Amino acid sequence: MASTVSENTDDGVLTSERGLTFVQGTALYVGAVLGTGAIALPAMAARAAGPASLLAWLGLIVMSIPLAATFAALGSRYPDSGGVSTYVRRAFGAHWAGLVGWCFYLTVPPAMAAAALFGGAYVADAVDGGTTTTVLVAVALIASVTLANVFGLRVSGRLALGLAVVLALLLLLAAGSSLPHARLDNLQPFAPHGWAAVGSAAALLVWSFSGWEAMTHLSADFRRPHRDIPRTTAAAVVIIGVLYLAVAGASILVLGAAAGDSNAPLADLLSIGIGRAGGVLGTVVALLLTLGVMNTYQASAAKLGAALGRDAALPRWLAPGSESGGVPVRSVLIVAAFAATALSAVVIFGDADPEPLVLLTTGAFVTVYVLGSAAAVRLLPHRSWGRAAAIISLIASVLLLGTTGRYLLWPALLAIGCMLYLRRSARTSRSAF
After folding, report:
1. Which chain positions lie within coiled-coil regions (predicted)?
2. b or e along 368-384 (b: 16 or more beta carbons within 10 Å of the residue's beta carbon)?
3. Among 166, 156, 56, 167, which Cα is nearest to 118's?
4. CA distances from 327 to 75, 101, 148, 214, 296 (A)
5. How confident is the model over 184-196, as pLDDT tens digits?
6. What average pLDDT does range 156-162 have in this prediction?
């Protein structure tokens, strides 16, 4: 919602009588972060670290505080729709800003494939199907959102936000209704795979917390960015932290050792809490949420790809559709083709296990966090709370980046590819003159 009428407040900050309010901003923030991770990651983290995965959840929530504060400080000081890319460009120049764009554009396809497998696993669990069912549903999901984006259809912002609200309520219902079945004995052994496994679980869980940077693109749309962005950020951190800890704790305490083997942990908790109807409800909502998230990510990535083509950060062949209201069909099809390739790779080489795709995605996202935090350290005033938060989030992001192990190769390859492409593009432009 773009601002149209502006006024100056007593502190000299430009505000708008129209635009995002505190409540609207908080709801959008929760919707941006609370996504498909909530329906699948509790089981994956439990499989990686057992009950000790709760420490990984808690650690990511604690890390979210300075990270979210960093982006809130940047958004309130430099409100701009370019978000992290704008801050990195201000701090380090066009090449590093281009890398941010590459990280988003070329990481959305494996993220789409992973999300599709999450949704497929819920359907397979509901109908007692196997890997074939999971993969077929995943293919159908990718094809559906691709067709929708080719023809310019969109999941409305209100519908996407509504699905996120329904998911939040379901998480509370699942945790609350299953609580009578919780057993403290399920916390033993607490770290069956060793304490190092907590780091592995944390690397997976970054998927669940990706999105703290998303609201920076809407920073200019708040009525009072200087005041409302920090408030909405603080409220979102608390809400998301409570929801994630509730469902993760319930998964361990109620499902026990079976938590790591569940294909549909949310549906399982609802089945235990309110009966078979709860499992069906969880499956339907998980499928709708997956469709909504995939549609939004593909639409956003396709538009970004067209913009990168227009700006010569990717081949200009991708540029059609970059204009306002345009449909970037070529970019949509490229994203879909890469998503299908990622899906095929994990089906052929990984028995349709989405974990490699999740780690590939989180490696790129954390790279963006590192760049965004570094930009904040350079841009924000010394001795300000925002810069202090940026220093902490930069250190934490670098440490978290190390937990992704060999999947660091992906952002490293993106960095090399981006730099080589931009240099080649610059030489071509100079030779033209």
Report:
1. none
2. bbbbbbbbbbebbeeee
3. 167
4. 28, 19, 11, 22, 14
5. 999 988 989 999 9
6. 64
- Residue 304: which residues within 8 A CB-CB, separation 6 or more? 101, 104, 105
Q: Which residues contact 237 (CB under 8 A, 6 or more apart)?
A: 61, 64, 65, 68
| Burial annotation 156-187 (CB, 10 A radius, 16+ → b, else e) | eeeebbebbeebbebbebbbebbeeebeeebb
Tokens of 322: 């970059």
Q: Which residues of 233-257 are buried (b: 16+ CB within 10 A; e: fewer)?
A: bebbbebbbebbebbbbbbbbbbbe
Of the candidates 368, 177, 359, which has an alpha carbon nearest to the alpha carbon of residue 268?
177
Q: How far apart are CA 395 and CA 378, in angstroms?
A: 14
Q: Which two tokens stand for residue 331?
A: 């970019």
**Alpha carbon distance 214, 234 (integer Å):** 15
CA distances for 357 relative to 209, 226, 291, 360, angstroms: 16, 37, 18, 5
CA–CA dist 98, 95 (Å, integer): 5
Single pTM value for the model: 0.81
Per-residue pLDDT tens digits for 326-353? 788 999 999 999 999 999 999 998 888 8
The alpha carbon of residue 401 and the mean position of all alpha carbons in its chain are separated, in whole angstroms, by 16
Question: What is the rounded end-to-end Cα distance, in angstroms, of the chain?
Answer: 42
Residue 215's alpha-carbon distances to 93, 274, 337, 351, 352, in angstroms, are: 22, 35, 28, 36, 32
Quick one: angle between helices 355-379 and 37-49, nearest 10?
Answer: 100
